[in-house]
Here is the input.
Amino acid sequence: MDAFTKLIGVVAPIDRINIDTDQIIPAVFLKSIERKGFEDALFSSWRYNNDGSENPDFVLNKAPYRNANVLVAGPNFGCGSSREHAPWALRDYGIKCIISTSFADIFYNNCFKNGVLPLVLPPEQVREIMDKAESDPGIELNVDLVSQRVWDESEEISISFDIDAARKDALVNGLDDIGLTLRKEKDIGDYESKHGFKAIS
Here is the structure.
């Protein structure tokens, strides 16, 4: 998993509440478990018309936001089914940070396991970022996980945030659950040797 320390990216605003995982990636795209190749499926029912052409009204189809790395959205982002394909699709598209007032628990956990930072901020700060991204298309945010701060170039936006220390450590070091377990490889090996376990070849 790629480490997340600091990101400078264009912010795309989606001012909707309860964006669920079926909207993030519809069920028809869940056939693969390769963890890649889902960028075209992200928000597909919003990005494309019935004939497959782009919907010009959707934010990610507008020039200033096409290369967005940061997404700001309404509360309860990632609700619905527990599909891990949702953070896969966001990551494949290039979204590395999602800012909202709240996230569905399973989606929130899945983001950390896939190198995506789900950032929880108070409503007034989310609204400040949302309004700025809408009024100044193409605005970039600095998201510094190490210093736990978000700001824009003018510093009109300057926000410090809290995050669980263990989750921060995992993202900064690019460690998924397997990587975190392997940190204890020596202890595991010592325990297995002490209790007579043999590695399975």
